[in-house]
Amino acid sequence: MAHDYGLYLRQEIFGARGWRGTDTYDLFLSAFNLGERTVEVFGRIGATEKIWLIHEEYGLSGSQLPSGQKFELACSDEAIYCKVLIDSLLANGKLDAARTKLCIDITGILRPHLMFLMLYLKRLGVRVVDMLYAEPKHYALKEKTPFSTGSILEVRPVRGFEGASSMRGGDDFLVIGMGYDDRLLAAVAENKDKAEKHQVFGLPSLRADMYQESVLRSRRAADELGDPNFSETHRSFAPANDPFGTASVLGEIIERRLARQPRTSLMLCPLGTKAQALGFALYHIFQGGALGTRIVFPFSQGYSPKTGTDMARAWLYRVEL
Amino acid sequence: MSGVTLSNPFSLTKANDLSDDQIQELWVDIAPPDSPDSLFSAGRFASPMPTFILGSKGSGKTHLMRYASFPLQKKRFERDGLRPLPGARVDGYVGIYTLCSGLETGRFQGKGQSDEAWLEVISYYLELSLGIAALAVTDDLLDGDVQHNIETAFCAAVGQLFDSDPPAANSVGGLIDDLERRRRELDYQVNNAAFTGELVPNVTASRGKLIFGIPQAFQSCSSDLGGFLFAYQLDELENLTEAQQKHVNTLVRDRRGPATLKIGARQFGIKTHATMSAAEENIRDSEFEELRLDLRFRRNEKTYRELVALLVERRLQNFWPQSSTGLAGRSRRLADWFEEPKRDPFDPFFERLVKNAPSPERPHMVHLREALAGQLSRGGIRGVRKEEDIPAIMNAIAVPDAPLLEKLNTFLMFNAWAKGLDLAQTATSVRSNCEAFVRSKGAGPYRQKLDHYKSDLIAQMFRDASYRHNYGGLDEFTRMSEGQPRALITLLKQTFDWATFQGERPFEAGSISIDAESKGALAAADWFYNNMRKAGGDGQAILIAVDRLAELFRINRFADNPIECSLIGFSVSARVGSEISQRNLRLALDHSFLVEILGGQSDRNSEQVTGKFQLNRMLVPKWGLATGRRGIKPFSEVEMNAIFDPRMGEAFEKVKADWATRMNAPFERARRASKDFAESDAGDSQVDLFGD
Amino acid sequence: MRSDPRHDAITDELQSKIKTLHSSIWERRADWPEVLDWLDQFEQHDDPDSDEQLQVLRLLSNFMYFGVNEIRALLRSLFRDTFRPQVAKEVRSGLHSSTTLDMVGSMVDVELRRTRFVSLGNPSESSALLLYYFRQENALPKDLFLHGSDIFDLSAVESGGLKVRDTHITRYVFIDDLCGSGHQGREYSDRIVKPLKSTSPGVKTYYYPIFGLSDGIDLLRTQSAFDEVYPVVELDQTFRAFATDSRLYIEPKIALLRLATEATCRRYGDELVPAHPLGWEDGQLYIGFAHNTPDNSLPIFWCDQTGPRPWRPIFRRYPKVFW
Question: Which residues of A touch B538 (CB under 8 A)?
Fold first, then answer.
């Protein structure tokens, strides 16, 4: 039943040794924000069509927007946004599920949108997508970097990943991909007060000191997490820059839990890196969905459009659906 | 205990972190469960009228509801040798606990569907979910021989409740499977709507059919099955939208048969009591009752103290066996495990506080002397016309052996100054009162002043010595928790952590140091304060208001002549303040940053709030304020807006300046101020239920 | 420790951070009495910025400790996310795109059976311990593990020419805990890997240190015979405590403390490890593991009473109990 994510291709395309060559694509999508990483990658990748995705949550003004093809949709949730995006690409022929060589830079895409996109592409029959992710050298203020802004609107399942909360019934189990934003973490943990929580920390972390920083931050929400002692049994590790390793770890965690308690209501929440969020989506697509797992997320009013500094490394993940 | 080893007996602070066993074992009540005084009875689980159980986070609401729920009832039945059915009759109810967040109502919105469509979905979803929960309980209730005769009849009766497509099962297990299948289908359709834009659920049971029908069907199967209620416990209703709450309110209103609803929510989490039909709204004491858990404890200080003691004892018993084998053993009083802050004016600690300096060099003496000298150049005061007048006064009020009394004396001098009295005469009378007190330690006006102002005096002395203000002692912690058991547990948890980190052995040997207690109190205050960060814009407004309030209270605390003693509360009358200010005040109350001072009138249903409020004492360590409230300051419209309207930064600065000049030498405006020192003792000072 | 409003503000912040670290990642090492004991070896000062105790307390609050669980997680990741996918990539590059994932999986398994994991250094060193954890975490059979001396068939030396013991082996994986300057790795490459590749040119060699300093990694990539060099956790220049772009001194107010702190560490370092006052090869690191604290870290952290100047460490070099 376990899926072998280890066979999927992951490749460093930018690092200490500079840029490696990459394929040319028919269609390239990337979400714009004010960090240099997305802009640099956008410039580097060769593609017939390149489209910037604009998220209103970044609060960018007109003058800050990039030139070139753009897609934006105000007042929409992740399902509506992505559906309109993909449907319009299908309609104008830029996307053909069977034939288009598609590449998506996930660095700036908001997690719920990223996940819905994956699921929708799979449903449409897309077989292969190359996803890119650019790591920052460090976050501006180390453990004091603010990520989400404004009110936390609600904690709810990501559209399409609502699962069957009743499928297994019984006790709630929440696996959280830990990140830097303890505000979001506390909101989810509090909302799922009764659930037993399992923390998945990003280790190996993007940079050596980030693991420690993410732990420090998470301890602020120790009360909400119900984990006063930083217990080993409630903790796992998944690579911060590898969606496949992340999906694999999730599989193990869920399997262990179900072996102990078959009647468990399973929940996931990806608050770590985008690469990890991608891993959560993949796990759901290949294994979790069938188990009735749902993915919940604390939807925030806004997100900081610039958190990381220049690019340390960039990765390519070849997702085979 | 259940084989749990904790490194901190207070580390599990939330009811939802506790297993069923722990809920049972850690439950403490102030009276036996069948007594009307008990907490348990207050939940009125066996009463048919729906109850709203309101309380803030940490008020014990969830603990109470879970304690009352069927899994815990079953444990108690086993313990008492009862079968479930007879047990239910003894209790008078079976508790069916559901957490609203488990329904994932966030799914039921958007996706291009209308609000009406979603309401239909949520109604059906609730029917199925609560129906399944009720059936699960009936499965337990029907045991052994009862089952054979009854089960088939019961299943048939349940089948009749459906509007269409009735389930074919003839066992309760089969029924549950069937309902779960329907619910899964609904889950699937709701999820799929995001992709297809379509949602056409097959609603086979309309509102109330299963929720009220199943209990009815159950008890009508045989007279043996009656004698108790099915109490649906819906917890955390604040997670539902207003429209969804209306739906629940409609269920409350339509309640029928042997079923009832017990709804748990945060105090201000109930958005409406309106129902789905336009004209009808549920009225308290008519369609529902209300239990306000916070108020229970805050109203009855003695009860709360007893509860606290029981709570702590129970935790130690279960999680910290060392405390019974420690040096001092169990013969120790609970309070002895905590070091107390120094309050006795004759304690040598106060001499150390002033660094053993002789009277004339002590900071408070220097300050008074310099203030008087400074005033000379401006024309002097009554009783102080020339330089030689000052030493006589300073000598009169000096108390070398008791710096705290000496400090009080300087206080009394400043006060006299503010009132325009003759300072030379005042100094003489202060001296004689002080000497009399030192001799007899008896009650009287001097003693009264000492008691009232002690907290502020000590705070000022600490600041002069650059010491961090301290908090400690079980009594003080109990007061600070404002009637919220969870806040107290958090205080103890943080304190315990600091104590062990610094190498102490809490509840094993010695007492927890003041240092650890103070750090624990500050950590708990930060935890409380930081909870607000989640709330975004609203949270910001609350934090700004609270910060400003605290700033003003600090000005008072460290002033030469405070307007009120131990000031952490204020009063404001009904129509005072802009809409924004009033809204933010309500928000601060909702999130327990402010608490109502009981005895003030507050009318939650109306748009305006009136009455008396104070800072939640969990927060006071952040600003070194007092934990025993005494004085209350009435706020004017200007002050109210300057504090509670985030945009009024400039106005606030003016209020601050005004307070500072009024309360500090040379008391520019003191004589024009409305409150006299002598009057404020008797008049508006609220006697503190939890007083020092 | 000095106590006054200015000092206290800093001490409180750092103490709080260390308390959190102590009760979480640091596996309950360095409680406050131990910290005070360590700080006592440094001088106080009226000016908080010049107070040595505050300077090193700040350093301590940034110490990166990787406990047993973390090391195991890194070893697991090494196999699951780095080596095995690398093998999969190599296998797939020669295949037709119609090959199913199941088939690829089988082929990868075959390749893995022809792989050997080798410990560097002598058996008493940490590399052997790491391989033990590595094997456990990844549930690998014992026969995939070798000592360096078992790569070659030494009985063949007499008859002239070097021979490999097992010609079926196609991959050799070398695992280490820390790659500093890379000199040790290069030396190993010269001694073992070059002869190996000359005897069996088709063989592939991989060098995976858990932690690798960028300079050392670069050196090995350009000057050694390893086919693939990849650290699980890379530490670039910014991880040297007092580098001009040091991660510890980014915030403007704190940046002012960098040079003074360096001077302090150097002063004590000169007495503790005269040849390397700021750590082996001027490492200036603030990192430690469950099984030891590398000597590339600042000596003030790990030096003990056996050095030229007796010292009380806060993260000892070879802890007495570590799992």
Answer: 151
